[in-house]
UniProtKB/TrEMBL annotation, chain A:
InterPro entries: CHCH (IPR010625), NDUFA8 (IPR016680)
Domain CHCH, first and last residues per copy: 91-124
Top-level taxonomy: Eukaryota, Fungi, Dikarya, Ascomycota, Pezizomycotina
One Pfam family it belongs to: CHCH
GO biological process, alphabetically ordered: mitochondrial electron transport, NADH to ubiquinone
Species of origin: Orbilia ellipsospora
GO CC aspect terms: mitochondrial inner membrane
Name the record gives this protein: NADH-ubiquinone oxidoreductase
Automatic annotation (TrEMBL), chain B:
Main location: mitochondrion
Family matches, as Pfam families: GRIM-19
Subcellular location per the Swiss-Prot or TrEMBL entry: Mitochondrion inner membrane
Membrane topology: Single-pass membrane protein
Protein name per the record: NADH dehydrogenase [ubiquinone] 1 alpha subcomplex subunit 13
Statement: the UniProt record of this protein carries the keyword Acyltransferase: no
InterPro entries registered for this protein in UniProt: GRIM-19
Physiological role: Complex I functions in the transfer of electrons from NADH to the respiratory chain. Accessory subunit of the mitochondrial membrane respiratory chain NADH dehydrogenase (Complex I), that is believed not to be involved in catalysis.
Keywords on record: Electron transport, Membrane, Mitochondrion, Mitochondrion inner membrane, Respiratory chain, Transmembrane, Transmembrane helix, Transport
A GO CC term attached to the entry: mitochondrial inner membrane
Family in the record: Belongs to the complex I NDUFA13 subunit family.
Length: 152, 136
């Protein structure tokens, strides 16, 4: 039994003061976890250079990364937003099917292969982005393309 | 005195085993059958664990691709809040002489605030919507 009473403070911690005007405005991604997971590999396919830049910047400026890497961070966010907007503009139906499947299947990618296949095909056809998993063993079919799987 | 002697031609054979037909297959068959079943099972286990490894790799890379997005947003928000706090401090303390503004730490690192000052109307033990009602 907890001996302390819970204190709720989230309703007073709202701080809506914007960043100073000399810092460019960025639209935040605003997607919840399932759409983000669904779009993750396409974000990776298009935004890998920006992501790597940002993570390298953070790594090279310990303790100052939050401020020094805001420029790179804005690029990362803009790129991710562009991917999600392209997905919504071109493959909305497939995208929705896939992330709603993920939502119901506990965010397990292997439970939504059918929907994922449709999404991957549509995205490759219309946006030219392909899902690849780096570091997968060569000479084997990538896990998301296998038809014969133990976990189904 | 005559002794008991075996009958002429010796005793007949003694039946010490039950006269039943042998049951099942040869023993070696069972050994090999067990081995075969076990090998098949281990093959499935190993195959499955390889697949599990690939699924884990997929999940890990999905998160690796998402980490910068989430981190960038979080950093921006934290910087915004800290700077807003500093500006609030400037406004509140502008009349105080010799007030030193800015970070209280002797470093140029970006120090995430450990404590956040909050207004005093937090009612312990009551969730916000109840607090709202109490205030109304």
């Amino acid at each position: 039994m907890a001996s302390r009473e819970p204190r709720f403070s989230q309703h007073v911690l709202v701080d809506a003061v914007p960043l100073p005007d000399d810092i460019p405005k960025v639209e935040e991604v605003g997607a919840s976890s399932a759409p983000l997971l669904s779009a993750a590999f396409f974000i990776g396919a298009r935004c890998r250079p920006y992501n790597d830049d940002y993570m390298k910047c953070k790594d090279e400026s310990p303790g100052r990364g939050e401020i020094d890497c805001m420029r790179e961070g804005r690029k990362v966010t803009r790129c991710a937003v562009s991917v999600i907007e392209d997905l919504r503009a071109n493959c909305l139906g497939e995208f929705r099917l896939h992330w709603q499947c993920l939502e119901t299947k506990n965010h397990q990618l292997w439970k939504c292969r059918k929907q994922e296949q449709g999404l991957n095909e549509c995205v490759y056809k219309k946006l030219g982005l392909e899902k690849t998993i780096p570091g997968a063993p060569e000479g084997q079919i990538p896990i998301h393309l296998r038809t014969k799987v133990r976990y189904t | 005195m005559s002794q008991d002697l075996p009958p002429a031609g010796g005793y007949g054979p003694v039946q010490y085993r039950r006269n039943l037909p042998p049951r099942g297959f040869r023993p070696s068959f069972y050994i090999f059958a067990t081995l075969a079943v076990c090998s098949w099972g281990f093959y499935r286990i190993i195959d499955g664990s390889h697949e599990k490894k690939e699924l884990a790799r997929e999940k890990r890379w999905a998160r690796i691709h998402l980490t910068p997005v989430l981190q960038a947003e979080e950093d921006r928000d934290m910087v915004r809040r800290v700077w807003a706090g500093e500006r609030r401090e400037e406004v509140l303390m502008k009349d105080v002489k010799d007030w030193k503004f800015g970070s209280v730490y002797h470093t140029d690192r970006f120090v995430r605030p450990t404590f956040v000052p909050t207004p005093s109307q937090i009612t312990p033990g009551l969730p916000p919507q109840v607090v709202q009602k109490v205030e109304d």
